[in-house]
Q: What sequence folds into this?
């Protein structure tokens, strides 16, 4: 097999493996109703819906003790491919979706299944990219549990 063909086959295999090992579950991305997001702090799970159909589910990490992520009804206010925190040393926050003040849903390299953030909702980076591309301005975000 020629060198470029080996490289292409290897790249395709790695891409397929990464897709299989993703910790998020997706269904088809066709519009079936209004978008909404539910974040369950008790289970550390984010679920995205179109109407009543679940289109994305992933584990998350919300705010740790003393920096709890607030419960309530919010809306996607702004989006940034790469936001830098003004509160925490210019920390990079890829695929950021602002939901209130200094609270964002964003990609992060470390997303344990327990509260560990400064208050934001951490999402695995690949899933954060999918969520960022899916969510619209004004999409309701309900944060419950805790």
A:
């Amino acid at each position: 097999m020629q060198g470029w063909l080996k490289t292409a086959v290897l790249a395709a295999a790695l891409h397929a493996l990464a897709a299989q090992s993703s910790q998020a579950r997706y269904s088809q991305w066709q519009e079936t109703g209004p978008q909404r997001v539910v974040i369950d702090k008790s289970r550390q799970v984010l679920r995205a819906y179109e109407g009543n159909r679940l289109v994305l589910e992933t584990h998350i990490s919300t705010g740790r003790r003393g920096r709890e992520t607030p419960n309530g009804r919010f809306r996607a206010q702004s989006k940034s491919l790469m936001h830098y925190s003004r509160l925490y040393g210019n920390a990079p926050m890829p695929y950021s979706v602002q939901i209130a003040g200094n609270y964002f849903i964003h990609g992060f390299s470390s997303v344990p299944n327990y509260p560990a953030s400064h208050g934001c909702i951490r999402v695995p980076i690949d899933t954060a990219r999918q969520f960022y591309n899916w969510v619209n301005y004004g999409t309701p975000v309900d944060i419950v549990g805790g």
The two ends are 55 Å apart (CA to CA). The longest strand covers residues 92-100.
